Amino acid sequence: MSVIVLAAGQGTRMGSLTNDIPKSLLPFGDNNVLVRLIRQILDFYEGDVIVVVGYMKEQVINTLRSHFGSRVSIIENNQYYNDVNILSLSIAVDSRTEPFFVFESDCVFDTFAMDKIFSQELSIHSSWFTVGKFDKSMVGGILKADNQQNVIDLNVVPKYQGKYESYDKLIGVLKVGPNEVETYIDLLKEEVKKSTRQYYLAPWINNLKLLPCLKTDLGKCHADAFNTADAYYKALKVF
Fold first, then answer.
1. How far apart are alpha carbons 25 and 180 in whole angstroms?
2. 123: Cβ–Cβ under 8 A, 6 or more apart, which residues?
3. Dihedral (C-alpha) 161, 167, 169, 174: value to the nearest 10 degrees?
4. What is the mean pLDDT of residues 204-219?
5. For residue range 6-34, what is the model confidence (pLDDT) as tens digits?
6. What domains can be seen in the chain, in order of their start residue?
């Protein structure tokens, strides 16, 4: 098992906040978003932690080395400017065959959320994590699950529509279980060949029948993500 943290993005929707600093290094709590996230991961997990860097990579690398030394491995995505996040993940998984977690570095969680993410109940399952119902103020990744929490549809949408009222909002965490890891990596590499301007969700969206997975809801915990300055300031207030 390994944990991959995607921290290569430019954060272009953050406006002037990311002119001189990567989004993952924005202040949060007593440090910054990325350091806070990795500290939490290490509280629950003893295996490999890999961070993919790109935009302003020197700042991110120096921060990681000063706080975690060699405990965290670093991989560079030098084509981050042409990538949403699918290439970053493809580079990180390479030829791996063991299960792994993916964390997007613009997400923040409380301890209860992290405990649920690393729960032993999910040890053999792939899972997408949600934060409650999809509503009119939201965009992005969504899923629909049946009564047994099996995911039956997964998508990324630019705006709310009434047909999505039964869907849940995704947050940037994925657990790829042992039964899906090889298939997912093969499909991920195929999608990268088509385009890097897409999300790492694409293989799952296009091949859901080949990649069975569960929904795990974090709605009763504190879990949030931010792609804009307003969302960042909102997350600061919540936490």
1. 32
2. none
3. -130
4. 96
5. 999 988 889 999 999 999 999 998 999 99
6. 2-238 (3.90.550.10)
